[in-house]
Write a structure and sequence with these properties.
The structure is a homodimer. By secondary structure, chain A is an alpha/beta fold. Chain A contains 14 helices and 15 strands. Chain A has two domains: 15-51 and 290-394, Alpha-Beta Complex (Aspartate Aminotransferase, domain 1), CATH 3.90.1150.10; 69-288, Aspartate Aminotransferase, domain 2 (3-Layer(aba) Sandwich). Chains A and B meet through helix 1, helix 3, helix 5, helix 6 and helix 8 of A and helix 1, helix 3, helix 5, helix 6 and helix 8 of B.
Chain lengths: 397, 397
């Protein structure tokens, strides 16, 4: 029943599909899966923190008590008790968030895609940090925006720079806590100024907050959402505080936008797995995160300290790096003439890996930057890997 | 720390977002959740067929043996053993499908969204059946195609109609087995002619096949994929043969397209939950579907027979309907002057629900049509509901 000698298809992809390319990070990750590699490249949380037994028990409970509901199609906006949990957890510092403002999504990345789908036209102005989270740049790129890079320093992005270019933009995307890729935190003063600036401009402000609970001292800064719930779109995730493989996150947005996002989600994948949402709710409903998150914080703080110590010990004085107060990443700036992509090739030859910084820039990539992740590597191996990198860099000075 | 009196945001949605609207079906489903309603409206499989215990055991096995891998980020293309299973299951009738051609997705709906994202530009010609699956129309609509409706009869779409309008189109979307919404099957002769026509035109043919294994006599027609694996894009799903709430399906496509779809998926949601894929593989790897699917088939065949008998008994002679040989749906054509949307209001007042046919048309909606689903209703309630509908229709003649 085979068709004989059919014409080969000349694939005619959509214009937006030309903009798609595989993430540099995921390509590097393929190389660095080999066990002999000391990899600072991953954005993966440490599996040592995954509450596997707890999750297993929750799957058993949900499937035993409510299996036929958990395995059936579910509502597009998400499992109501979990939306209520999210709304409660964000109704702090004087803000009131309702469950109707919460849309459950298949990981934060889907939230970014839906926001792009609903807010970005070809040529729309979109403001991002310098550098910005690569996954957001990828998700938005598909919809053809004109990115405007907002300058930053060690206290995060500069709100006054938003004032001059923000008019008419579709959104500003910020990752205020322990940013990916830099590990920087937006200071309290700047949060207030940024929310105020965006409110004056009528500019939707996206607050992406996957690492917010991972502050090493346990005292996070106030969320921008709580300062203006009518102007801030908040994104949260269970990937970094529970496990990423279940693909579960949420977007909190003002009514007109969240209803539009819900319609977009319906056309995109109907809904996020009901079973997963019920299981996560079962795991966290009685306060599990309050005992679990400190374990993650302590582990990450320990490894961050190990890496900072190793950087001081082994990196030449011409190199600088950020000192994160939480999260998973350190950002390194090399002398101007060193290209981190070329350095990566040499590093991999010595079984060490990291992510070059250039892809994190929407405009004007700084090729002398790189991102180090420390959470999945033991302190001994951190020291060994940083020592090797330091030697390679020193040889280029 | 609240910002005082901020400007309310004037939401500026993307042009494509104007095209989004909530599915009529999902709106109706909200009404028809009340237990007193006899609902023929759902597209939901019968939860009586969900292998809950088997799934529970598989979650336990996977999390016990491989929990940290299952709960970590995974590859974008999917879990290799499951992709191998899919490739093997489709390497039939002389065709060879490789695991590299398989992309795991979060339900077929996501496959449709990714295909739209990668293949459809504003104004691209897209060919669909008359009527067509509503979810596909929704997913594609976002990308702004010009839909061309291909005429159909009781043996499915007419391949000769494709020949005259197919040149330059980006894709043809067909659901050949027990179509949603009509329950019709594309005949073997037409499959061959359609594959041949598309191959001559170099036109990508999407074969959406969620119900393919649910033929009541257990003898499905050959898949179009096997007739020309280089020109047909096949979509399968575990929603109708296992459970829909886990959101797991797959797209099988020629290399250049599947790699582009993989990039689009990465930007859209990174990957589909690894845990779910490992669990489904655990459930099906030893031949479970071969014993499970006949149970679903028998149940659905029984209920289809009950509905066909009730239609013959209670519906006026002026009404006609399809006689499905598998799947979940019967399509009803009323006399020209009866609007099924108005009929629905009267039916709901009498605690019976169905889905009006108009939204399933990309062009020129036929308002005198409706879709009946029979799989979640007992034969007694089917008889009761059809009797009520028959009376309402008779009163309009």
């Amino acid at each position: 029943m085979k068709i004989e000698n059919p014409n080969p298809i000349q694939w005619h992809f959509a214009e937006r599909a030309q903009k798609l390319q595989s993430s540099v990070i995921r390509e590097i990750l393929k190389i660095t899966m080999r066990p002999e590699i000391i990899s600072f490249a991953g954005g993966l949380p440490s599996p040592a923190t995954f509450p596997v037994e707890r999750m297993k028990a929750a799957f058993d409970t949900v499937l035993s008590n409510n299996g036929k509901v958990a395995l059936q199609y579910g509502p597009t906006d998400g499992y109501l008790p979990l939306r209520e949990w999210v709304a409660n957890s964000l109704s702090i510092d004087g803000a009131t968030i309702s469950p109707e403002q919460v849309l459950m999504v298949s990981g934060s990345q889907q939230g970014l895609d839906l926001l792009g789908k609903v807010l970005i036209d070809e040529g729309s102005k979109v403001l991002v940090e310098t550098p910005s989270y690569l996954g957001a740049l990828q998700a938005f790129s598909v919809y053809g925006p004109e990115f405007v890079s907002i300058p930053t320093d060690d206290s995060g992005l500069l709100p006054e720079a938003v004032g001059s270019v923000g008019a008419g933009a579709r959104l500003l995307y910020a990752l205020p806590n322990f940013q990916n890729p830099t590990g920087r935190t937006l200071s309290l003063e700047r949060r207030v100024a940024l929310v105020d600036t965006c409110a004056r401009l009528g500019l939707p402000l996206i607050e992406d907050d996957p690492y917010g609970s991972l502050s090493y001292n346990g005292a996070p800064l106030p969320k921008m959402l709580t300062m203006n719930p009518n102007g801030v779109i908040y994104m949260g995730s269970f990937s970094k505080v529970l496990t990423p493989g279940i693909r579960l996150g949420y977007v909190v947005a003002p009514q007109p936008l969240v209803r539009k996002l819900e319609q977009a989600k319906q056309a995109t994948d109907l809904h996020t797995a009901q079973l997963t949402q019920m299981v996560v709710h079962e795991v966290i409903k009685d306060g599990f995160l309050a005992e679990h998150i400190p374990i993650i914080r302590a582990l990450y703080a320990d490894r961050c300290a190990a890496m900072l110590a190793a950087l001081t010990e082994f990196f030449p004085a011409e190199v600088s790096w950020t000192k994160p107060e939480g999260g998973m990443f350190i950002w390194v700036t090399l002398p101007q003439h060193i290209d981190s992509m070329a350095l990566l090739d040499e590093a991999i030859a010595q079984n060490v890996a990291f992510v070059p910084g250039a892809p994190f820039y929407a405009n004007d990539p700084q090729h002398n930057t790189l991102r180090l992740s420390f959470v999945t590597v033991t302190p001994e191996r951190i020291r060994e890997g940083v020592a090797k990198l330091g030697k390679l860099i020193a040889a280029k000075l």
